[in-house]
Amino acid sequence: MGLTKVFNRTANNIAWLNGAQFDSLTEHRADVWRVNINLALVRLADFKMILRADEIARASRYVQAKDSNRFIVSRGALRHILGVYLSRPPASIELVEGVNKKPEIYNPANTGLYYNVSHSGDWILIAVARSEIGVDIEFINPVFDFNDVMSDIFMPGELAFVNELDPAERFFTLWTRKEALAKATGQGLDENFMSIPALDGEHTIDDTDAPSVGNWQVTSFDMDQHHIASLACNLDVSETRFWNINFNKAR
């Protein structure tokens, strides 16, 4: 058993860059791409063309068209983005399930590329790095009765923090931090979820609670005034870039 450090923080006033200006991804960088589903619908047919047969079948199983479209946009945008990093045709990239069904590129250690995806409402976030990464976005729902679940997922200090001020925003900030780190480490949400630290600052925990090689940083940011997101990546990552996908090109 070892110890893992987790550093939690909030990034304010982040700048979303034009995806057409994208350049190389080094081991010390993490990239976050945002995709607006409504804007991306103009590329729906193009995205569908690069999906594999099992992905097309999965999209067809959704009862509502909006859910099917969201899946096609999410998977199509992901394939386009990964194709840019790997310099490969998007349709040729093999996506598989890893530990706890965490989606990953086949044999990620050989490709040197890791990703994670989250969506809420009209937004999709795709995070990419040269090491394990996790991302989560949530709608700040002011009428969600989170009091029924807080005692099951938050430690006492976190409960006090949520109840102190702006409870809805604070609840979803802490939730996204826990979920982003759980996704980065390949944990299921039922595995030691409460013990994942979510308050600002530095924390030290047993690596059974966040199994990893190295330490973690978790950064929260406002997606817009209604959505909060968090990104979990290795502490060796010293730069995070935020990109808007360009719907007129492959990026």
Write a structural description.
With 251 residues, the chain is α/β, with parallel strands linked by helices. The protein has a single domain, classed as Alpha-Beta Complex (Ribosomal Protein L22, Chain A), CATH 3.90.470.20. 31% of the residues lie in helices and 30% in strands. It has 8 helices and 12 strands. The chain has helices at 37-40, 44-49, 53-60, 65-86, 108-111, 147-153, 156-164, 167-185; strands at 3-10, 16-18, 29-36, 95-97, 103-105, 114-120, 123-129, 133-139, 201-206, 216-224, 227-234, 239-244. Strands 8-11-10-1-9 form a 5-stranded mixed β-sheet, with helices on one face. The chain has a 5-stranded mixed β-sheet with strand order 2-12-3-7-6. Strands 4-5 form a two-stranded antiparallel ribbon. α3 (53-60) packs antiparallel against α4 (65-86) and α7 packs antiparallel against α8 (167-185). The longest helix is centred in the first third of the chain and has 22 residues, at 65-86. It is globular. The termini are far apart.
Summed up, what is this model?
By secondary structure, the protein is α/β, with parallel strands linked by helices. The protein is 31% helix and 30% strand. It has eight helices and twelve strands.
The tally of structural domains comes to 1
User: Structural class, judged by helices and strands?
Assistant: alpha/beta
Low-confidence stretches: none
Q: What's the number of extended β-strand segments?
A: 12
